[in-house]
C-alpha cells in the first residue's frame, strides 16, 4: 500500500471501511494460519478476558481444537473501554458495552474460569488461582491489561479514585464519573488530568473530553472542560482541535506541560489539583487518569522491567524474561504500536499462530500488524489514524507510507462517515472477539 492511496478522500474512506472488518483477520506471512487441524496438542493458559486474551483463546482453538485452552478472567461479563466514552456522553448504555464468554465455551470449547491469577511459577510452568487451584501449562499467554501507579501522583490513591474517578477501566468507575457529570451544576468545570505516555489508548482522553463536551453542550451549556496534560502534544491533536473549535467553540481548554499542565498533587476531597508551576485549580468534577503499568500478574510473574511494562520478542511477543510466556495487549512494550484494543486483537492472532507453531516444534510465521484508531469528536464527527507494522532489524517498526490520518478540513459528510465507520469497527471487533455485537 502506498501513501498515494490515502490521499484521495474517497479512496481513503473506502479503505477505512474495508479495514474495519478485513483487518481483524490475522496478518501472518500474508496468509491466515488457522486451518491446521488436530495434529498437535498441549495445554495453554490464557490470563485476561479482554480483547487480547479472549481473541488469543478463540484463535488457538480455531487453529487446533485438540489444544486444551483455559481462559482465566475474573469478570463474567466484560465491559469494553472502547465506546465507554459514549456512555459518559449519554449516548450509549453500559449494557451495550457488555460482552460474555458463551461463544468461547459453547462453540470453541475453551474452558473459562472466573478467578484471578495470584502467582505464576514460570520455571515450573504453573499458575495459582485466587480459588487455590493450580494450573499447569505448556504455554502461558498473559493479557492482563493495566494497573494504576498509585504512588506516582501525590494524593491520588485507590481511595481517592472513589471521589475523583479515573474511569480508565470500564465498569463501576465509568458509572461513578457519569453520575458526577449528571449531578454537576450548570456552569461547573470538568477537569481532566492526563499523564505522560505510555498509557492505555493514547487518544481516549481527548475523545472523552469531546463527548463530555457534547453532553454539556446539550444539557449544561454554561459548563466548561479543562484538560491538564503532562505532555506538550497528543494523538491526532490537530484533528481534535479542529473538531473542538467547529463543534464546541471555546468550551474545551487544553493546557500542555510547558504551559503549566503537568499536575503534581491531587486533593480528591476538595477536588483540587496543583500543577508543577504551583497553580491550583478546583473542579466540580475531577477526572484523574494516573500513570499506568502492566497488570499485576505480569510483575508477579517476573516479566516486567523497570518501566513497569513487559519487554517482548517482536517476532512472537514471547517474553524476553521467561520462556514459553507470551504477553499481548496493553501490558506489552511494543512501541511504536499504540496500547489499544485493535492492537491487542491483532497481537493475539499473531501470538496464537506463534504458540501453535511452537507446540508443533515449527518456527513461527513472519508477522505484521495493522492498527486503526477511531475517535469520536462528536456523535456524528469521527476522525481516525491507521498504522501498519512489521519487524525490521529486530524491532517493531511502522511501515512507511502505509498508514495515515484523516484529512484536516474535511466536510461534515466525511466526518459523519468516519463516525459511522467507528461504529462498524466496534461491532466488528466485538463480534470477532466475543461473538457478540452491541
TrEMBL record:
<dbReference type="InterPro" id="IPR015323">
    <property type="entry name" value="FlavoCytC_S_DH_flav-bd"/>
</dbReference>
<feature type="domain" description="Flavocytochrome c sulphide dehydrogenase flavin-binding">
    <location>
        <begin position="365"/>
        <end position="434"/>
    </location>
</feature>
<dbReference type="InterPro" id="IPR052541">
    <property type="entry name" value="SQRD"/>
</dbReference>
<feature type="domain" description="Sulfide dehydrogenase [flavocytochrome c] flavoprotein chain central">
    <location>
        <begin position="174"/>
        <end position="290"/>
    </location>
</feature>
<feature type="domain" description="FAD/NAD(P)-binding">
    <location>
        <begin position="43"/>
        <end position="156"/>
    </location>
</feature>
<protein>
    <submittedName>
        <fullName>FAD-dependent oxidoreductase</fullName>
    </submittedName>
</protein>
<dbReference type="InterPro" id="IPR023753">
    <property type="entry name" value="FAD/NAD-binding_dom"/>
</dbReference>
<dbReference type="InterPro" id="IPR016156">
    <property type="entry name" value="FAD/NAD-linked_Rdtase_dimer_sf"/>
</dbReference>
<keyword id="KW-0285">Flavoprotein</keyword>
<dbReference type="Pfam" id="PF09242">
    <property type="entry name" value="FCSD-flav_bind"/>
</dbReference>
<dbReference type="InterPro" id="IPR049386">
    <property type="entry name" value="FCSD_central"/>
</dbReference>
<keyword id="KW-0274">FAD</keyword>
<dbReference type="Pfam" id="PF21706">
    <property type="entry name" value="FCSD_central"/>
</dbReference>
<dbReference type="InterPro" id="IPR006311">
    <property type="entry name" value="TAT_signal"/>
</dbReference>
<dbReference type="InterPro" id="IPR037092">
    <property type="entry name" value="FlavoCytC_S_DH_flav-bd_sf"/>
</dbReference>
<dbReference type="InterPro" id="IPR036188">
    <property type="entry name" value="FAD/NAD-bd_sf"/>
</dbReference>
<dbReference type="Pfam" id="PF07992">
    <property type="entry name" value="Pyr_redox_2"/>
</dbReference>
Amino acid at each position: 500500500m502506498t501513501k498515494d492511496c490515502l490521499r484521495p478522500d474517497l479512496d481513503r474512506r473506502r479503505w477505512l471501511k474495508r479495514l474495519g472488518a478485513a483487518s481483524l483477520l490475522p496478518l501472518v506471512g500474508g496468509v491466515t494460519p488457522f486451518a491446521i487441524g488436530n495434529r498437535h496438542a498441549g495445554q495453554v493458559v490464557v490470563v485476561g478476558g479482554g480483547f487480547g486474551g479472549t481473541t488469543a483463546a478463540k484463535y488457538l482453538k480455531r487453529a487446533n481444537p485438540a489444544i486444551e485452552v483455559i481462559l482465566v478472567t475474573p469478570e463474567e461479563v466484560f465491559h469494553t473501554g472502547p465506546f465507554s466514552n459514549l456512555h459518559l456522553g449519554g449516548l450509549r448504555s453500559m449494557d451495550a458495552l457488555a460482552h460474555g464468554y458463551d461463544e468461547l465455551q459453547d462453540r470453541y470449547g475453551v474452558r473459562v474460569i472466573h478467578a484471578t491469577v495470584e502467582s505464576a511459577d514460570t520455571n515450573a510452568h504453573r499458575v495459582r488461582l485466587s480459588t487455590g487451584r493450580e494450573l499447569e501449562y505448556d504455554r502461558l499467554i498473559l493479557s492482563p491489561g493495566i494497573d494504576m501507579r498509585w504512588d506516582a501522583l501525590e494524593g491520588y490513591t485507590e481511595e481517592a479514585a472513589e471521589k475523583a474517578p479515573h474511569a480508565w477501566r470500564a465498569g463501576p468507575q465509568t458509572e461513578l464519573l457519569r453520575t458526577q457529570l449528571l449531578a454537576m451544576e450548570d456552569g461547573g468545570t470538568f477537569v481532566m488530568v492526563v499523564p505522560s505516555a505510555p498509557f492505555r489508548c493514547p487518544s481516549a482522553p481527548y475523545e472523552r473530553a469531546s463527548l463530555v463536551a457534547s453532553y454539556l453542550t446539550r444539557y449544561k451549556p454554561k459548563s466548561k472542560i479543562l484538560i491538564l496534560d503532562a505532555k506538550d502534544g497528543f494523538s491526532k491533536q490537530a484533528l481534535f482541535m479542529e473538531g473542538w473549535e467547529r463543534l464546541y467553540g471555546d468550551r474545551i481548554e487544553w493546557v500542555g506541560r510547558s504551559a503549566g499542565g503537568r499536575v503534581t498533587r491531587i486533593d480528591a476531597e476538595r477536588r483540587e489539583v496543583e500543577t508543577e508551576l504551583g497553580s491550583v485549580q478546583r473542579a466540580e468534577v475531577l477526572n484523574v487518569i494516573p500513570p499506568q503499568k502492566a497488570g499485576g500478574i505480569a510483575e508477579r510473574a517476573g516479566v516486567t522491567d523497570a518501566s513497569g511494562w513487559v519487554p517482548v520478542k517482536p517476532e512472537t511477543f514471547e517474553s524476553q524474561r521467561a520462556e514459553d510466556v507470551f504477553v499481548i495487549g496493553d501490558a506489552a512494550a511494543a512501541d511504536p504500536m499504540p496500547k489499544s484494543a485493535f492492537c491487542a486483537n491483532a497481537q493475539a492472532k499473531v501470538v496464537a499462530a506463534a504458540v501453535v507453531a511452537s507446540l508443533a516444534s515449527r518456527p513461527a510465521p513472519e508477522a505484521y500488524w495493522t492498527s486503526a484508531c477511531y475517535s469520536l469528536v462528536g456523535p456524528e464527527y469521527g476522525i481516525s489514524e491507521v498504522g501498519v507494522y512489521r519487524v525490521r532489524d529486530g524491532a517493531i517498526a511502522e511501515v512507511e507510507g502505509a498508514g495515515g490520518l484523516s484529512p484536516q478540513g474535511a466536510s461534515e459528510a466525511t466526518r459523519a462517515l468516519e463516525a459511522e465507520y467507528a461504529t462498524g469497527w466496534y461491532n466488528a471487533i466485538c463480534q470477532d472477539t466475543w461473538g457478540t455485537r452491541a
